Amino acid sequence: MSARILAGAFNAQVTRRAFALEREARNAGQDVRWLAVGKKGRDQLKRQYGDKIIKYIDLSSFRSINADAAAIVGETINELFAAESFDVATLFFSRFKSVISQVPTAVQLIPAVAPEGVAPPDLKGAVYEYEPSETEILEALLPRYITGQILQGLLENQAGFYGAQMTATDNATRNAGDLIRKLTLRYNRQRQANITKELIEIISGAEAL
Q: How much is the pTM?
């Protein structure tokens, strides 16, 4: 979510998506906990799930979203997973589609899920030996994969926010212009009516004399 304002229903769209999946998980007997990233995300969650927020990460100290910001979130998730605080982690963000369209998106981080439509590699019967071991390689790569997914989500979310903010600001400017024109027309009509009334009163007074 964005910590800024003037973006229409940008944040509300993401929370609706997250809350819908939370209800599905709860109905399936799962216990859902939240890791809030950003002040707006925390404020949205506190209204309904304040007691379910296990940690809050404030990224306001970063002037822009970068790999360091994503690394902080990734390290926190890895620490919580190592402490067995959860077994499935899902990232919610708004994916940028166009300036006027942002898609609320959920991506499962843990366990890692292969992208849809990607076929497994055909090894053609070959057997590979790894050095270091496969376990050691995965232990090194998975945290980087999680951080990369988080960085992508943060950047997509930021791009979507800028699009939503631009659209909301443009709409506000257009609506303000329409309102100014309506008020100006009303003022001119009232002014003309007052002038006409004064002229009628002057003419009536002159005729009475």
A: 0.67
